[in-house]
Amino acid sequence: MELTLWTYEGPPHVGAMRVAASMEGVHYVLHAPQGDTYADLLFTMIERRDRRPPVTYTTFQARDLGGDTAELVKRSIQQAVDRFQPEALLVGESCTAELIQDQPGSLAHGMDLGVPVVSLDLPAYSKKENWGAAETLYQLCRGLLKDLVPPPGTAKPGPERWKQENRRPRVNLLGPSLLGFRCRDDVRELRSLLADHGIDVNVVAPLGARPADLIRLPAADANLCLYPEVAGPLCSWLERNFGTPVVRTVPIGIGATAQFLRELSSLLGLEPPELREADRSSRLPWYSKSVDSTYLTGKRVFIFADATHAIAAARIASRELGFTVVGLGSYSREQAREVRAAAQELGLEALISDDYLAVEQAMADAAPELVLGTQMERHSAKRLGIPCAVISAPLHVQDVPARYAPQMGWEGANVIFDSWVHPLMMGLEEHLIGMFRHDFEFVDGHFSHLEGASAPALQPPATAAGEAPEVTPLSATPEGGALRWTASGEAELSRIPFFVRGKVRRNTEAYANERGVAEITEETLYEAKAHFSR
Amino acid sequence: MALTSTLPPVLRESGQREVFCGLTSIVWLHRRMPDAFFLVVGSRTCAHLIQSAAGVMIFAEPRFGTAILGERDLAGLADANEELDRLVGDLLARRPEIRTLFLVGSCPSEVIKLDLAKAAERINTRMQGRVRVVNYSGSGIETTFTQGEDGALTSLVPLLPSSPDPQLLIVGTLADGVEERFLTLFARMGLESVRTLPPRQSTDLPPVGPGTRLLLAQPFVADTVRALERRGAQRISAPYPLGVEGSCAWMAAAAAAFGIDPQRVAEVLDPLAERGRRALEPLRRKLEGKRLFLLPDSQLEIPLARFLHRECGMELVEVGTPYLDRQLMAEELPLLPEGTQLSEGQDVEKQLERVRASRPDLVVCGMGLANPLEAEGFATKWSIELVFSPIHGCDQAADLAELFARPLNRRELLQWN
Ligand code: SF4
């Protein structure tokens, strides 16, 4: 039993819904009580979909439990097939139905439905949403393709067979799904990137695919595993059974996009991409080199996201923007190994957790100047008064913008530059306004441009939004003795930009403790500053 | 009751429902009682439901949470009980400001027969009065949406002190401002002894006894009423305080139950009613003759339909309700126009077919259905907003009507050429 206040991921059947709702011609019969129909709003409200997800719920009630819930399941399946005439049917259960063991999958297999049926076994008490999405995509493809798997020993077609077949090379884009971060735009960006390199797209799945498209998956020369959280198991299975090689580099950021193109070209036997392509195609390299960006140097960033976006963000932040990554973590346990490796490269220990309070604590301890995270970190960062950009699911309606805003490819790098640097600029502006707040022109109330944030120089940001014990800067020494800030010390501290103020306060207190100083004056603060900048 | 015979037979549906479960009511109950914590004992689905219904993560540490059952808890109930005690212990240690802890049952906890009443007893003994622990079920196999509040309030009834004194007890959550307004108005009529359930502090429980008369602010508190009646209270039969008519009748019924001079009541209410109707007038012009379809969701559908028809002139195409409680609707049903088609329960696909066939001007529905219906060309109003907004009382009648007029106004405002 585990106490959860806010969760990063829903239950695994929500992952299955993401796959079903992403596709055309697929219907999902879910054995579940009525309350579970809340999941529809994830699609109709957050993604603003114009249709309901293709899901039929049995909505069994307590009074059904004594009787024949299996009959109810069969009735629901038959009605769903009659009404929606799907090309493939997914059948599964949510947490409660798992306990009553009606085995809806076997029931469906026992019916004469005339459509391919894939039974989903998604353990609700041990697995979560992304795992459920990956398992569903894999089971669905396996169900549709298993009779087409060549017998063992058959020669696998090479990734260069397009040359013999006298056609352009073609690849599958695997993993984009609804409720994934910017998937819709990433697909469009990658389509154009691949087209520029003479590569065709065979199938995109699950987003926009029909069951018949999944049957064409093995016709690709390579699979691009764009979101390993969703497409990892499918890519491995296709590689093992059909010999389709996988490109696992996720093209988010300049370096990763270039690396992705190099890998793909060499795999397919294409000319290597031109070296200056990045400079020609994206503004990020020049914007980052331009003198205006000097102030970005060494900015402390804290990153927490799904594995795909956390790893990508760490690479961009450290190599392409000159930030210092002070924390890196992910809630994707299935990809923990990759996140740990990325953290290690930066001399950090990865935080793998789905407890947002632990993440908030780690954030506070790292005293970052910028947070790159999910909506949860956005709220934590707001409480701590730190600028934040959202880089990953779980989604809020704001994360599905009307404009074209990919993360992948050259345009994705442009979007990332803008959306990460913008909150920093806002922070800087906030500081400037704070510095001039004693000038007579300053009118109270014209203080903050930051959405909902409190005026940071006037009021400690930590007291702004939350209601219960907040993560606040330490105010007692580790030994338990009280440290006191004198008026001059506090005044000096308030002159420090709010986004580093927490760190300066902490350092000064540590310094004071070390020296046994009980009162912190402005001099103590400067002594500490000199001490730590050695 | 004789009047209801003019209604055609209720359409009883038993297909797929598209309604939240009772856990959802935690979203407003935890705001009503800031010193209480709602701990759902359930699954990741339950946690995700509340999070999705609550919308945004506003609080660092909200006053609700989910004890998510793991495989080990399912394997042995002994372990599950031990785990629950440990988890509650940690929670209460971390959150010393909590005075009342609601253990909220879910479908999984009900199915594995985890005894939360026993758990509450155990923890109560251990906490020795520092915190009061009660339990109820908000599970989707037993409760819909607003019914969760009924469970929560019922669980408080045994804790209410006894008192034989005459008092009016308003049952069901009202917005704080609305509640204050009602108290002021009752005081003007000379009715001073008025209490509310739920109270604003979970420890400030109203007494109950033979002198207590119950006035229902919400139509979904049937079990609470029965429990209070067992403690000697008597229910005042009245329509619900939605709209000018409903609100006046509701207050007047309470005043009558305490023998207050009708003259005095009229002196207080008449000017209010007059003003309320004046405020409603422009909205009535907007809504008059517009056809309304209510899908079952909040259990407020019948009183809303009554208000929108009688005071705003809307035509009722179908009035759906998750369940029809004839006793608690006894004053409402006769006020519906002749021929109103009521439906109880749901078969969502069939109901949507009826929506498409009847082409109403406005559909009241849950959040899962709103955008798809908008995309099909229907104006919609989400019902969940009705349980979060101050909509009760004469002074709120125009605001309530405005909630329904807004989607129609918006459609007229938008132009694309
Ligand atoms: S319907 Fe049952 S399982 Fe689903 S969220 Fe509600 S209580 Fe939990």
Quickly list its features.
heterodimer, A: 534 residues, alpha/beta, globular, B: four-stranded parallel sheet, 16 helices
Rg of chain A, rounded, reads 26 Å
Content of β-strand of chain A: 5-15%
Helical proportion of chain B, percent range: 40-55%
Detail the poorly predicted runs of chain B: none
* Assembly type: heterodimer
Quickly count the helices of chain A: 22
Largest sheet of chain B: 6 strands, parallel
**Spatial order of the strands forming the largest sheet of chain B:** 1-12-11-10-13-14
Content-based structural category of chain B: alpha/beta
Series of secondary-structure elements of chain B, N-terminal to C-terminal: EHEHEHHEHHEHEHEEHEHHEHEEHEHEHH
Q: Which distinct ligands sit in these coordinates?
A: iron/sulfur cluster
The average pLDDT score of chain B comes to 95
Query: Unreliable stretches of chain A, pLDDT < 50, 5 or more residues?
Result: 442-479
Secondary-structure blueprint:
The complex is a heterodimer of chains A (534) and B (417).
Chain A lengths: L1 E3 L7 H11 L3 E6 L8 H7 L8 E3 L4 H5 L2 H16 L3 E6 L1 H6 L3 H6 L7 E3 L9 H17 L15 H4 L5 E5 L8 H14 L3 E6 L5 H5 L6 E4 L2 H15 L3 E2 L6 H15 L8 H5 L2 H6 L10 E6 L1 H14 L3 E7 L5 H10 L5 E2 L3 H11 L3 E4 L1 H10 L3 E3 L18 H27 L48 E2 L1 H8 L3 H18 L3 E2 L1 H11 L2
Helix pairs in contact in A: 1-7, 7-11, 9-19, 15-16, 17-18, 20-22, 21-22
Chain B lengths: L10 E4 L11 H7 L3 E7 L1 H11 L9 E5 L2 H5 L1 H18 L5 E6 L1 H5 L4 H12 L4 E6 L9 H10 L10 E5 L4 H14 L4 E4 L14 E5 L5 H9 L3 E2 L7 H15 L4 H26 L3 E4 L6 H10 L4 E7 L20 E5 L1 H11 L3 E4 L1 H9 L3 E4 L1 H5 L8 H17 L4
Parallel strand pairs in B: 1-12, 2-3, 2-4, 4-5, 6-7, 6-8, 8-9, 10-11, 10-13, 11-12, 13-14
The complex binds iron/sulfur cluster.
Iron/sulfur cluster sits at the interface of chains B and A.
